[in-house]
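Notes on consecutive records. When two proteins share a document, each keeps its own sequence and its own C-alpha cell line. Never mix them. Below: protein one.
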Amino acid sequence: MTDTATATIDPKEAAHFGEMAADWWNPDGSSAMLHKLNPVRLRYIRAAIDRRWPGDAHSFRPLAGKRALDVGCGAGLLAEPLARLGATVTGLDAAPENIAAAQAHAAPQGLAIDYRATPVETMADTGFDLVTSMEVIEHVADPAAFVRALAGKLAPDGLMILSTPNRTPLSRLAMITIGESIGGIPKGTHDWHKFITPDELTALLEQAGLAVIDSSGLTFDPRTGFTLSANDAINYLLTARHRDR
C-alpha cells in the first residue's frame, strides 16, 4: 500500500536535487538557471502581493505580519527573499541535503527561516497567507495530490503562486535539448512528459477548491534575459486563491 503521506515525493527526484545541494548558491553552478529565474519570479510575486494586500508599493516589507510557505524550497533561493519581504517563512524540501544547505546559508544572515525536510502532506501547520512552489510540480509523483496538499495549507484569504514548465515542443527544445546540453541545466533534471500545461494545472487547482486569478508566461529575451510575457510556451506562473474569496 502506498504511504499517502509521502505519495507525492519521487525519491529519484529528491536524490537528484539533493546531489546539487552544496552547489545551490553558486550562481554559475548547477543551479545557475534558477538564479537567473529568481529575479523575474520575485517581480511576479511582489506584484501579486501588492494587488492582494494594497499598501505602500515601495515598502521593503510588504509581507510583514504574514506567514509564507515555500514548498520545494531547495537551499532557499526564494525563501530568503520572502523573509526579507517581512514574512515569517517555512521552507520544505524532500532532500535533507538541501535543507542543511539552506540552514547554513540563512544563519549567518540572521534570517530565522523554519526549514524542514518534511513532505507537505505530513506538516500539521495550516493557515499560510502565501504558499509558493516554484519549478516543483513537474518533479512530483502525483500532481493532483500535491496541489490538494498545497491548498490545504492556504489561509482562507491567502494566495498560492506556482511556476512550472509548459508541455510544448518549444519547452522540450529549450529546457531539455538545449538546456541540458549547453544551457547549464544538469542532465536528467527534467522529464518532458511530466510537464503540465496551464489548462491542466488550472483544472488541478479548481479540483482542489481554488480559482486562478492571474497568470503570466515566462520567456527568455537574449537582450534582457528572462522576462514576464504573454507567451507561456516555455514556462509560466499562476496565482490562485480559494474560490468565492
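Protein two starts on the next line and is unrelated to protein one.
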Amino acid sequence: MPLARYPGIADYADSVTATEDSAESDREAVDAADEHDEPTEKKHSALREGAILVTVAIVLYYVMLTFVARPYLIPSESMEPTLHGCAGCVGDRIMVDKLSYRFTEPGPGDVIVFKGPPSWSVGYKSIRSDNPAIRAVQNALSFVGFVPPDENDLVKRIIAVGGQTVQCRADTGLTVDGKPLDEPYLDPNTMMADPAVYPCLGNEFGPVTVPEDRLWVMGDNRTHSADSRAHCTNAPTDAQKGLICTGDPTNGTIPVDNVIGKARFIAWPPSRWGGVTTFDPQQGH
C-alpha cells in the first residue's frame, strides 16, 4: 500500500531515514577523527618513550662514570711508551676501572690514576677557558674523556706500597726492600738514557720507607716524570751529596685514598686499542 495514502507514516519514515543518515555521518566523522588522532597519539607516545630511554641512558652512564669506570685523557709523556701523551698533542684515552679497588688494594706494578696531593699541586693552574660557555663545553667533554679534567689527576705506576723501603744507588739500581726490580716497561729510546748505564735514571735517592696506607709511584718514562722522587723531602746533609728523598717520605708518597682507579685499557685511538699491562717489578711478572 503506498505510503502517500498515510502521510504520517511517510513523514515518520523520512525522519527515521534522516536520523539513520545523520548517525552514519556522525560515526564516519568519529572514525575520521579517531584515525586522525591515532598517529598523533603514537607520535607523542614514541616521544615519551624516547625521552625516558635517553634519561635512563644518561643516569646509567653517570652511575658508570661515578662508580664503575671512566675515560681519561693522558696529557703528558711521563708514562711512555706504555701510555702515549704529550703537552699540546692528542694522547691516549684510557678507561679507568673504579670498581676493583673497592675489593682489593692497589699493588706494585698497577698503573693508576690518582688525585695529586696538595704538595703535588703547587703551581697547578686551571686549564679551562675564562669564557663561561667554552668552559661549560670543556667540562662536558672532560666528563666523557675528550679533554683532561680540570684537576691535578695524574697517572703513574706503583713501585712500592706501605711498609716497603725503596731506594736507588748507582751500583744496585732501583730496589725495594733491598731486592732489585725487573722493569721491562722502561724504554731506553723513550727515556734517552740506558738503565744499564744510568741505573737511577736521575739522582740516587732514599732509602724511603713508605708509610702505611700510602704508595710510592713513578713514571715509565723515568727521565721525564715528576713522580715521587720530585716531591719527597731531603735531609740537608744528604742533599749536599746529591742524594735525595732521605727526609720525611710523606710528601713523596700518595695516600691510597687518593687513588681514583686502575688503568685497564686504551680506548682511543683505534690504532692503540689494547689492555694496559700490570707487571709487578718486585715479582718479575
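For the record: Confidence is low (pLDDT under 50) at residues 9-13, 15-20.
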